[in-house]
Specification:
Chain B: This is Actin-like protein N-terminal domain-containing protein. Chain B: InterPro entries: ATPase_NBD. The structure holds 2 protein chains of 2 kinds. Chain A is mostly helical. The longest helix of chain A is centred in the middle third of the chain and has 16 residues. Chain B is of the alpha+beta class. In chain B, the strands form 2 sheets. In chain B, strands 3-2-1-7-9-8-5-6-4 form a 9-stranded mixed sheet. Chain B starts with a strand and ends with a helix. Classes of the chains: A mainly alpha, B alpha+beta. Chains A and B meet through helix 6 of A and strand 13 and helix 13 of B.
């Protein structure tokens, strides 16, 4: 059984190998990734309550594969944002979260 | 031309399943040493490259195997030459040349194909750096044996000439690092993640999820903290390691010399008697087994049933031993391997009862996935963080 998460538990987030540039740029632009994601969740819950988003969003999404086309269609609006904020910082806070739940003990067991 | 390949290599007694640069190759694990090329006329290299693995001829110059020219896999099997195979229960995999030669051959074949796809041409020289994970049967896996097996790959470079008709391509294979783990153990990674690194899903889990009424969007994340007793039934050995999430529980590593190969060998005499042949090879028997329309099919099944039951009983005994050792603290018994397909009708009911009694879930991998679980697990392992960390530590130690 899947254990429910408790406060303080790790959640792991990993980007896809073919993650769209839109998503990757957005991630790289955050100084506190987890807090930004928390804010997105808060917005979603405020608007729609707690629900399994997988039942409501299409599997094929307009931005999912090619962020660039979307950017082009928006009269450069997003592109401007992107250029304005991108150089801000490379985020360090990402690394501990994306770590795939593998700790030293796991590694030692394979030696 | 230079490449870096990740290789997940399952050198089985009957079949060689190997992921090279993400491509799965399945070939009979046999080869034969020959004196020269079989072709007298010119062959177009392009026509060979497409199905190179089915007509693979290489010349090996390696510090770890007898130098010479070899037919590999299917081409060797079909050649009528004297075959080199791995003897069920007799050969030590880390000592013989077969796994070295066939591994080098397959890696070189993919390198040639990759150049051809990317460049539309055929180069004279290719160099391949390899990171590889492979396995030894648990009964053969000791620290010394695995270190020796690793060294045979990492000694090098190995020079492999791939013959495309009369044309030759030289492939220099260098193993940057090789890790040898006990058979079946990496399968824990294949249960969790797919080739892309996402949680595995799909019909591989259908029966399991339905039987235990698990949630609809069931996927491999289920296994990430589970204690799994593996039962990997091969031709010559069966492995019963226990893993917990991404961890290998060393104290429970256990294997036994049982498998489908023993049952087939036992059945063969009786089968030959029934069909009035003094002698027929194991391969013939296997072909008849696989073909329900063959006139001797029911005879083959009949003769195999009792020997298979014998093997299945031994396997159940070993599983019980493991359960006792682990105090029944197992979440899932996971059964796979080529032998699990033949034994399913006998083993599945026995295991189901045992699992109900001990309150353990049974995941009997469907036949279409059963054979490649080890190769998939090795492919996931060699691309994973644990391999990376092991490699780093090994490099530091030098």
């Amino acid at each position: 059984m899947k254990k429910p998460k408790k406060p303080g538990d790790n959640i792991s987030i990993k980007t896809k190998k073919n993650e769209s540039p839109l998503i990757v740029d957005w991630i790289n632009c955050q100084t506190n990734l987890m807090d930004s994601i928390r804010y997105l969740i808060e917005n979603e819950v405020a608007a729609n309550g707690i629900r399994n988003l997988q039942n409501h969003i299409p599997a094929e999404r307009a931005f999912s594969t090619n962020g660039d086309s979307l950017i082009a269609n928006n009269n450069g609006l997003i592109a401007n944002f992107r250029n304005a904020e991108l150089p801000a910082t490379k985020v360090e806070s990402l690394t501990p979260n994306e770590d795939d739940d593998i700790d030293d003990e796991d590694i030692d067991s394979w030696i | 031309m230079q490449f870096h390949f990740f290789v997940g290599n399952d050198n089985g007694n009957s079949e060689h399943d190997i992921f090279v640069d993400g491509r799965l190759i399945q070939q009979p694990n046999v080869n034969c040493a020959v004196d020269g090329l079989p072709w007298s006329e010119e062959q177009s290299p392009e026509s060979i490259i497409k199905n190179l693995q089915d007509q693979l001829i290489v010349t090996i110059d390696s510090p770890s195997a007898r130098p010479g020219m070899y037919f590999i896999g299917k081409f060797a099997l079909d050649s009528g030459e004297l075959l080199d195979t791995m003897q069920v229960g007799i050969d030590y995999k880390y000592d013989v040349d077969l796994p070295i030669v066939n591994t080098l051959g397959q890696i070189a074949s993919v390198a040639v194909q990759k150049v051809f796809e990317e460049e539309k041409g055929i180069p004279e020289n290719i160099e391949v750096q390899v990171d590889m994970a492979t396995v030894l049967p648990i009964t053969q896996h000791t620290d010394e044996a695995s270190a020796k097996f690793e060294r045979r790959f990492m000694a090098g470079p190995h020079n492999v000439t791939v013959h495309l008709g009369k044309m030759r391509v030289t492939v220099k294979v260098i193993f940057d690092f090789t890790k040898v783990v006990p058979e079946a153990t990496p399968v824990t990674f294949a249960l969790q993640k797919d080739e892309e690194g996402n949680w595995r899903e799909g019909d591989i889990f259908n029966e399991f999820a339905q039987n235990y009424s698990l949630q609809e969007n069931f996927n491999g994340s289920y296994f990430k903290d589970k204690r799994i007793l593996h039962t990997d039934i091969g031709d010559g050995s069966t492995e019963y390691p226990i893993t917990e999430g991404n961890k290998l529980l060393r104290q429970f590593v256990h294997g036994s010399n049982h498998g489908a190969g023993y049952a087939i060998e036992e059945a063969l005499d009786e089968f030959n008697r029934l069909i009035h042949l003094p002698d027929s090879p194991r391969q013939f028997f296997s072909d008849v087994m696989k073909n329900p329309n063959h006139k001797y099919h029911s005879k083959a099944i009949k003769t195999l049933r009792r020997p298979l039951e014998g093997q299945a009983k031994q396997i159940i005994t070993n599983i019980r031993k493991q359960l006792t050792k682990a105090r029944n603290e197992i979440d899932v018994i996971c059964v796979y391997g080529g032998g699990s397909i033949l034994m399913r009708s006998i083993l599945h009911p026995m295991l189901k009862d045992l699992c109900e009694e001990r309150e353990i879930k049974l995941l009997y991998i469907p036949p279409q996935y059963a054979v490649t679980m080890n190769a998939k697990g090795l492919d996931a392992f060699v691309r994973g963080k644990i391999y990376e960390a092991l490699k780093e530590r090994a490099k530091q130690a030098v």
